[in-house]
Amino acid sequence: MKTGLTAWSVLCDFDGTIAQEDVTDSLLMRFGRPGWDVLEVDWREGRIGSRECMAGQIALLDCSRAELDEHLAGMTIDPDFGRFAAAVRDARAALTIVSDGLDYAIRSMLRRHGLDGLPIVASRLVQVAPRRWKLEFPFSAADCVSASGTCKCAWAGAPRVAPGTRVLVVGDGASDFCVARRADLSFSSKRLLDHCLDHGLPHRAVANFRQALELWSAMSAPRAGHDLLSSPGRGSHP
Ligand SMILES: [Mg+2]
Ligand SMILES: [Zn+2]
Question: Are 146 and 157 in contact (CB under 8 A)?
């Protein structure tokens, strides 16, 4: 087994993980025309995938770009995400933001925090009229088991990940379930933590990027990365 951290590929969720709120939900609550909540229930109850849900919901947004930008400017990210991203970069490991959310929102929020330049895999928000938007899915997959807007599972294996690379997922929700099943390790919170516990997936519980950073730093000790991997599903304390 390789030592050190350079052999890790880190896949990081955005909404509820980097962003402290779910950005899409906050936009819908403020600018959504009636009907978006019906789609949300259909998705939660498994009648539609997140791709169909999000496409329908974004078509119901009623806001100008200025209103969108103003809303995004009021949203916060985890104050320690930048330090975590820097530590991953310093270890020369790869960090990719893999999100079922909106590329425009992610880019805009990260830029405001001086974090532009990170690779982003997400659905594409396109303006189609002064107050109308649509969502495109450059990273969906026809065979995606969860019918997601972005098929996250595709990012946990070949050809996206080179042989010998270990995959670390950082996430919090249902959109991370599939990729966490394929990952070597997850830093999990909220619903993803329950999922990892229920299915015996290798994970550590983290509440925020301060804790994720502590774990990442501990993994740079000579045998620590191996030890973290050798106890799948156990020891959820950060
Ligand atoms: Mg999330
Ligand atoms: Zn998928």
Answer: no
> Strand (E) positions, 35-131?
94-102, 120-129
Contact assessment for residue 155 and residue 99, using Cβ atoms and an 8 Å cutoff:
no
Task: Identify the nearest ligand to the CA of 23 by its number.
Answer: 1
Total domain count for the chain? 1
- Per-residue pLDDT reduced to its tens digit, 178-215: 999 999 999 999 999 999 999 999 999 999 999 999 99
Whether residue 234 is contained in a domain is answered as no
**Predicted local confidence at residue 231, as pLDDT:** 47
From ligand 2's centre to the CA of 159, what distance in Å? Answer: 15
Q: Which residues of the chain have pLDDT under 70?
A: 1-6, 221-238
Tell me which ligand sits closest to the C-alpha of residue 148: 2
Q: How far is CA 38 from CA 24, 47, 102, 155, 192, in A?
A: 15, 11, 20, 30, 24
Q: Output the CA 123–ligand 2 centroid distance in Å.
A: 13
Q: Residue 223 has which token pair?
A: 């045998």
CA of 63 to the centre of ligand 2 (A): 30
User: pTM score, two decimals?
Assistant: 0.90
Within a domain: residue 47? Answer: yes
75 CA to centre of own chain: 16
